[in-house]
Structures are given as structure tokens and as C-alpha cells.
TrEMBL record:
Any one GO MF annotation of this record: acyltransferase activity, transferring groups other than amino-acyl groups
Alphabetical list of InterPro entries matching this protein: Acyl_CoA_acyltransferase, FEMABX, GNAT_dom, PG_Glycine_Bridge_Synth
Keywords: Acyltransferase, Cell shape, Cell wall biogenesis/degradation, Peptidoglycan synthesis, Transferase
Species this protein is from: Candidatus Thermofonsia Clade 1 bacterium
One of the GO biological process terms: peptidoglycan biosynthetic process
Keyword Ribonucleoprotein: no
Family: Belongs to the FemABX family.
Protein name: N-acetyltransferase domain-containing protein
UniProt-listed Pfam families: FemAB
Amino acid sequence: MTAYTLAHFEGTDAAWDAAIASLPCAHPLQTSAWGNFKQRRVGWQPEKFVWRDPDGAIKAAAMVLTRRVGLARVMYAPKAPLLDYADHALLERALHDLERLARRRAALQLKIDPDIVQHTGEPNTDSWQDDPNGAAVVALLKRRGWRFSPEQVQFKNTVLIDLRRSEEELLSAMTQSKRRKVRYGARHGVSVRAATPEDLPSMVALYLETGQRNGFLTRSAEYYLDEWRSLMAEGLAHAFIAEVNGQMAAHVVLLAFGHKCLYFNGASTSDNALRKLMVADALQWEAMRWAKAHGFTIYDMWGAPSQLDASDPLWQVWLFKRDYGGKLTWHIGAWDYAPMPALYGLYMRGMPLLRAWLRRRSAAQSESSEA
């Protein structure tokens, strides 16, 4: 059995990104740019760890974020650890070391949410498939005392589009209705261009407008300005704008790293005349074309329902995404390791109250800005 050793990663930010880019499950939320932003803006403290084989090669990695909540600590390794999840010996070693780290830090919890596939396709259809490795990873987590988290920070499920196909094949995989929508905008005055830092205030305003219209929780304008500006400056984020006669009608913010391009944020106008030009569809297609042209093999549409019915909060999102010809992908989701189960239980019971307060504050801020 291969002996893997854990070590702090002491190299530069660029060296970290280079080290993890080729690892299985490499993800934008494990990059230095993401950790630095979360540290500066929210107060998370990033630490970088690697697991090496006897030859010194890095076989696994995790950037772990730690933050104080009162007198306690919470820890989170977004989309980590990065490794080959079919190598259960390596996974066991990584989990063992992360558990020990959480115990030594007296953390309330350590959360992980790696992109490990559990199922693909739509339930009760021929497309539905179980992933045996996903089931094995879930069984291992349970055996080691991890629990499925009631707090799913990132989207658990998503739609993945394979960009290794030609543009013609990508279009053919879409429904006929989606192909018409994708092509409609270009024929009716919709143009798409790369965003610049000068566009960010208008983009943020449109994003907050979209959040209010569609009822999803948003942060402050300053948060998004800082996030998008810093991630664009570090080359992780790339933004595109759909315009009609020079007027911004929609935008997307992509996070691109490793082999994956992630549709991270998006917004569209409330102007029905502009919406009828299918600006969002034209923009998504141009974003996919950009990702493909820059060598990314997966376009991750970032978010899909947990229940495929109208009761799910992401149902309307699914109706927009499903016709692009991607694969509905169900991940194992976020799992928590709790060294102190009783305190963890108290913390989890308090989280719904905190989220309700954040929603009330967001609504109050929106009303205040309109007064």
C-alpha cells in the first residue's frame, strides 16, 4: 500500500494553483484567488495542505478555510479534498488527516463538498444512472463518522456540458427550441462582449435587480464589486455582457480553472422587450464558445434542483438549463465532521435563525435603496 504524507504547502499562490490544476476534481473554489478573497472580505483564514507519495509527487490537496464563530471555530474545505476518489486508500488517509486537524483545532465542524458524482440523468427515465464510486465514497464517509450536512453551502447538483464536442455537435445536443433561442438574439441586434472593470457597478446593479425579481438571497453591492473585480484581476473570473443598442441586457460571470469553466453568476434585465430577444440564451452560448476556445472541457452550469418538480427553489433555473444538452449531475453534497457533536447540534439549530435574519436584512436593504 502506498504511504502518503501530509504537509503544509509553503509555496507561492501561483505555485499552489499550478500544483492543483491537474489534480482530479480541480476546482476554482480551491484556488489562491478564492482563498485570498474570502480572507480579505469575510475573515476566513486559508491553509493549504498537500499529500505526497514516496516519490514526492503531489497526489491530493486541500485548501481549508477556518473562521471564528463566537468563541468557536468552523472549518470548510470548499470542493475538496482534490484527489482521485477511486483511490480509497488515499481518500482514507486524507480524511484521517483532516479529521485530526479538526480535532486539534477544537472545531465545531469541518465541512467538505467535493464534486463526487452520485447519480446522473433524470429519475424514472432511461437516462438515470447510479455511480458506484459515489456510493462507495458515501459509505466510507458514514463509516468514519461524517454526516450529510443540513447546510449545503454550494449547489449540490448541476448540469455539465461536455465541451470536447464540436460547436455543431453542441448545438445538435440542444432542443430545437433552445437552438432557435440561441440564434435568435444575434439576428435581432443582441451583441456579446467581454466585460471590463468599468462595467462592474452596472453589472452589480443588474444582479441585485435579478435577485429581487427572482427571490434569491444576495449580498451587498460592495461584496460583489470586490469579488468580481479581484477575481477578474487575478485571472480566475471572466465576465461577458449581452447588449442591445449599447444597453446592458444580461451578463455572466465565469470562474475558469483546470479543465472546468463554471457559470458562477448571471443576471438579466426586467425589460420584457429586451427579454423577448432571448438575450440570456445568446449569452450562454457565447460563454460556452469562449470556454471551448480557451481549452476548457467542461462547462458547469452551477446549480440544479434536488427535486425535479415545481416545488423546488431551483425549478425555474432547471427549466432554463435543461435544454442546452448537458448532463444532469447529482453530487454527494456537503458532509460535516463534528469533533464535538453536542455543540455541533446547537450550532446547526441556530443556522436557520441566522439565514432568516439575513433574508430580512437583505429585503430591508432593497426597500431602503428604493426609498
